[in-house]
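Today's session is about reading a structure prediction critically. Students often jump straight to the picture, but the first step is always the sequence itself: look for stretches that repeat, for charged clusters, for runs of hydrophobic residues. Only then move on to the predicted structure, which in these notes is written as discrete structure tokens rather than atom positions. Here is the chain we will use throughout the hour.
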Amino acid sequence: MLAFIAEEGAITCATCAGHPPRFACRTCGSEEFLTGTHCGRCRLQVRIDDLIGADESASVELTRLRAHLADAPMDPRSVVSWLRRPHVASTLKGMATGALDVDHSALDLLTQGAATRYFRRLLIEAGVLPQIHVLQHELTLHVAALAGTLEPTSGNKLRRFYRWDILPKLHRRYRDRERDLSMEAFIGQRGHLAAVVRFLAWIDARGTLLGDLDQRTLDHYTARIKTREPVDHFVRWATKSRLAGDLATHDRAARNTMSTMTEEELWRATDLLLADESVELEVRVAGLFVLLYAQLLGRAVSLTRDQINVTPEQVTVQFGVTPVVLDDRVGDLVRRQLSAEPRRGYAAGTSGWLFEGLSPGTHMTAAYIRLRLAELGIRSRVSRETRMNLLSMRMPSAVIADVIGIGGHTADRRKRNTGGTWSNYPELRS
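Below is the predicted structure for this chain, in token form.
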């Protein structure tokens, strides 16, 4: 008898059905995940032994990887296939033999992209490599690679621009808040840097130095490109740093005032997310955080379980300084989200994220939730803008700042722009 699926949907093996197994792993006797004469778990152990050595010979760090992969709930045959990938196999083999250091420099030698990013995050999650901000690190490697494509003088200026202008801003926004770059910020910075590299390559092709660039030549270039802001930003920095002459750049285009929706439309969208069970649970919860509590979608998806407090009576979320008691219906959805089946197959246990991503150690991306909301006819940015305006008209700015998690100056500006009638809030909050 072979394994089969019973009427109730359970996978049943020959032994469970009271028959002697005809097909089983020759090593452990298991009938699960068979591939030929052996099961997936035994093949996984053999593959790991081949790459990093047996338990007694492997380093402490690589032994952690063995335990991490062996305990993963996903199909072990998929793990074996992943371990056969050339960049994974060669790197782990090099670490095991001492040809490569067991640190991030070993992965820096690989082609940077989604596959290497997943590999790096899995090694961090397994405790093989120390924690770093992966996208920030990858962006720094990307800049070094871009600089190598330019003439030495231009490449040096690109590195200086990144180090002294872009990097400090990213640190203030992300690293100082103990966060990695968002994927949107990572992609955006790569696009801006690509525009600067094209500009510097154009200068190199003309045989001109940045310090000798005149206004006419700069205007000639910027008049022929679609996106001027990255080049203007670089030129302003170069002028301020005295790496270029006194060059004029275009004024930054004023941001268009974001459109809003009516309060009735906002509540219709809210009711849809509260009631529609056909919508994925994570989309409903993250969307409600935006529609009801004016959260940026990027911040909503990066909430951790530590920011949620559940009692039999209520659920609170700490978006800012002061925890927010959720509406009972929203609280019930959050309880369900907390108890939902783990999404990750790469590790056992529970993630620290409320909205767990598919890549090791990451949360769900804002882009995915935004896309799903858009398919439901809900524009997340417009919805948040509307909710922020409504809150600013009806609540003191100090309360909004504490509860929503925005700066005091931002809350004050919102109040002025929306014509909020609250005067300065008394300093009664400790």
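Discussion point for the tutorial: The mean pLDDT is 87.
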